[in-house]
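Can't paste images in this forum, so I'm doing it all in text. The chain is below; anyone willing to post the predicted structure tokens underneath?
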Amino acid sequence: ARISADRLQHSTATVFGAGGAARAVIGALIDLGVPEIRLLARRDTPARDLVARTAIPSLYAVPWAERHEAARGAALLVNATSAGMKGLPALDVDLSAASSGALAYDLIYTPRDTPFLQAARAQGLATVDGLDMLIGQARPAFRLFYGQTPPTDLDPTDLLLRQLG
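Text version of the structure:
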């Protein structure tokens, strides 16, 4: 499942989390020209501080108390928190107001099918799990560590799935 850059340039994205992963997602969304990026963190201060530090007009901090409304009209919903990771409680958000055809992306890769993704599918949304992100960040890291480009014909998905159990 994917969402086109053109659609994102005319839509809203909602990002849950204010840590490093969320900052990377926000940077990509800004580069794509997303006109409205809603940022929520389970503690309001980190989201407000990040918005204040970046001073990007399209980035808004939304109070956690309003999280159930944060999906309203969003074409992209990203879980960049640890909520839903193996052994942790699920992310407590209502996705029912997301746009028709919205994409829910959970950066978590263990478990691959998180409660966030299950809730998104229950609303008829397309979903993407965090395994692609894990693989995507591994390639540049390999290049940095070893000074070589990793083989492009190697697909580590099966190996990773066995290791992640």
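The first strand starts at residue 12 and ends at 16. The chain has a mean pLDDT of 91.
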